[in-house]
Design goal:
2 domains; Alpha-Beta Plaits; alpha+beta; 9 helices; 282 residues; 4-stranded antiparallel sheet; elongated
Length: 282
C-alpha cells in the first residue's frame, strides 16, 4: 500500500509540474543597454565615396585606433584583419558553401570591432567616426532582447511574403565537390504555422522535463525586438522588415542549459517549424 501511495504521489507530482509550465507572453524586460559596433576601413576600389577608391593608410589606421581608445563611449575594441574576417565568415557559413563562395579575402575590409556602453552613445559615435579619414562605413547593433533570458529559440513558419512568393522549392541541386546538399527550407511553399501546429509544438515542449518557461512571441513583439536591435532608423533592415511579415516564435528557458540539444531534437522537423537552435547564454 505504501509503495502504491508513493507511486500515486509521484504521478501527481509529475502532472503538477507539467501543469505549472504554461506558455507565457514575453517578459516586460529588461531591454538590454549598450551594443556592438564595426568601423570598416577603406580598401582599394572601395565603393564608398569618402574612400575615393583608396585603401586606408597605416597613419590613418593608427589615428582611428587612437581615437576609438580615447572615446568614453567605447567599452572595448579590437582590430580585425581581412584574414580573420574571412575565417569567421567561412565558419559562419560552414553549412552553406554557396554563401561562403560569394566572397574572397580581398573583398572583406579591415575593421575595428567593439562594444559601446549605452544605446544613447550610438548617434554621437557614428557622427564622430563617420567623418574620420580612412573609415568607409559604420554599423552598430543593440544587444538582442532574448540574450541571457532563454536557451532555445523556435522560429515558426511566417505568412507568405507577397514581395517574394516562393511557390515551389528551388530547383537548384548543384553540389560542390566534397560538400553535401543544403537542407530544404521547411517553410517553402506554405504559409504561417497553423493553430494546430502550434498546439503540437507546445505539447512536445510540455512533454519534456526541465522546462522552466516557454514564451510565445507574436509578430508585433518580434518587430519591437528588431527595432531595438537595429540602431540606425534608416537601416535597410528596418525598411526590409517593414514590408514583410515577421515570424512568430517560441523561446524556451531550461533548468539545465546544456539540455538545449534535446529540445532541438524533439521540435526540429515538426510541421510549422522553420528553425530551431540553441542560444548561447552567458
Amino acid at each position: 500500500m505504501a509503495v502504491l501511495l508513493l507511486g500515486v504521489a509521484g504521478t501527481a507530482g509529475w502532472y503538477a509540474y507539467q501543469n505549472s509550465v504554461r506558455v507565457l507572453p514575453p517578459p516586460d524586460g529588461p531591454w538590454p543597454e549598450g551594443g556592438t559596433f564595426t568601423v570598416s576601413l577603406c580598401k582599394d576600389d572601395d565603393v564608398y565615396e569618402q574612400c575615393r577608391k583608396r585603401a586606408v593608410t597605416p597613419e590613418q589606421r593608427r589615428s582611428i585606433e587612437e581615437r576609438l581608445r580615447a572615446m568614453p563611449e567605447v567599452a572595448e575594441m579590437e582590430f580585425e584583419s581581412q584574414e580573420t574576417a574571412w575565417a569567421k565568415l567561412v565558419d559562419q557559413f560552414a553549412d552553406d558553401w554557396r554563401m561562403a563562395s560569394i566572397f574572397e579575402v580581398d573583398d572583406l575590409p579591415e575593421s575595428f570591432k567593439g562594444r559601446l556602453h549605452r544605446r544613447a552613445d550610438f548617434e554621437s559615435f557614428g557622427t564622430i567616426m563617420g567623418g574620420t579619414p580612412g573609415v568607409s562605413n559604420i554599423a552598430a547593433f543593440g544587444y538582442h532582447f532574448w540574450e541571457g533570458k532563454v536557451d532555445v529559440s523556435i522560429v515558426l513558419c511566417p505568412p507568405e511574403d507577397p514581395e517574394d512568393p516562393k511557390g515551389a522549392e528551388s530547383d537548384e541541386t548543384e553540389e560542390k565537390p566534397g560538400e553535401t546538399k543544403e537542407e530544404p527550407d521547411p517553410c517553402a511553399g506554405r504559409g504561417a504555422a497553423t493553430a494546430e501546429e502550434k498546439k503540437a509544438v507546445e505539447a512536445g515542449l510540455m512533454a519534456l522535463e526541465g522546462i522552466e518557461h516557454v514564451y510565445f512571441e507574436n509578430a508585433a513583439h518580434a518587430r519591437r525586438v528588431l527595432e531595438h536591435l537595429v540602431v540606425s532608423r534608416d537601416s535597410f533592415l528596418i525598411g526590409f522588415a517593414a514590408a514583410r511579415p515577421l515570424p512568430e516564435s517560441y523561446f524556451v528557458k531550461l533548468a539545465d542549459p546544456g539540455a538545449a540539444r534535446a529540445v532541438v531534437d524533439v521540435v526540429k522537423g515538426m510541421p510549422g517549424v522553420g528553425e530551431v537552435e540553441p542560444l548561447d547564454v552567458d
